[in-house]
Structure formats: structure tokens, C-alpha cells
Structure prediction request, 206 residues.
Amino acid sequence: MGIYAKYIFPRLLDLTLNNPQLGKYRRRALAEAKGKVLEIGFGTGLNLPYYPEAVTQITAIDPESMLARRVAERIEKSNVPVEFFQLNASGHLPFDDATFDSVVTTFTLCSIEHVDAALAEMRRVLKPEGQYIFFEHGRSDDAKTARRQDRYNPLQKIVGVGCNMNRKIDALIEANGFTITNLERFLMPKSPRILAEMYKGTAQRS
Prediction:
């Protein structure tokens, strides 16, 4: 991992995604989380303040340990017990089938290289009656914007350290054994449209 990806990008990401506007959306997205939660793509722990009281435990995984001291402070302040594992979601997760009441991804599906494999693992460890909660950016339904996303995606993958702006999130989820039970599409205010196309919703195992 280069200097930019290891030291600079995590700080830029934390600065960009840590703001009251996004916090409001995080709270809304996580409102239905409950019980034992598996958060894929924990990043710097920005979701922690927004989990509802119904959550009893958070198991967090991320392939990188970013801003370790800052993350440790956020975990210590969390009202919910948090256990962090440095793992790649695309591999076999060390959890039994049907372990978790909720699986959560926020700004994560864009950057997982083998996203189909990761979604299959999420489905495996989610209880049959559990919920997959997602808050992601992705491909626009507007053809002109989608073409621009395709054009600039190679550059985005470099700047965003593997982040893709043109993945059709709902189609990915449904293609990997989930049925979407609620989906909200909107544009994130004050953001370039190619990065502002949001998918927020819930899904269950098909």
C-alpha cells in the first residue's frame, strides 16, 4: 500500500464523510438496525454514534486498520460493545451461518473488489429473518450522468483507492440472493452528481 492510500486517503475520507449532513442520513439509514450487527467496511467508525438502542453488539470488519488511534477513541466512546476484525469481506468470514440480526454497509459496496463474493458472505451470516441495511452511492438512472460515471470511473478508482462510482447497487444486491424491501434514491446535496447518486434501503434473504 502506497503512502497516499495508507496515510493521506484515510484522513481525506474521514474529513469528507464526517459531517452533520451525512450524520443525519446515517441515523435514518441505521434506524432499523437491531441485535447483533455485522458492519462491513467499518472505515474510521463514523457510524458508531448513530446506531439505535436496539443494537446490542457490533462486529466490525475492514481490510485496513485506518487511523487506528482515532478509531480506538470512537470505539471507546460507543454506547454499544464493538469488536473489530481486520478482514477482507470477499473471503470466508469467520462467523457461523445465520449469526447476525443485521448486516450494515455504508459507502462500502463501491470499493469491494469481489463484491459478489462479499454479498454472498453477508447473506450467509445474516439470520433468515434479519435485515441487510445499506447506504451507498452508485450508478445514476440518468443515462447522461451514467455515461459520465463510466468515463471518469478509472480516475475515481485511483483517487478513491478502489472506489467505483458506477455500480448499480440495487441490481448487485438483488443478484446475490437478497430481496430489497425498501429503497430510497436521492441526490446528496452539495455534491457532484456523478458521486451524489444515493441508494438507501433494506433487504432480506430471498
Q: What stands out?
A: The chain has a mean pLDDT of 96.
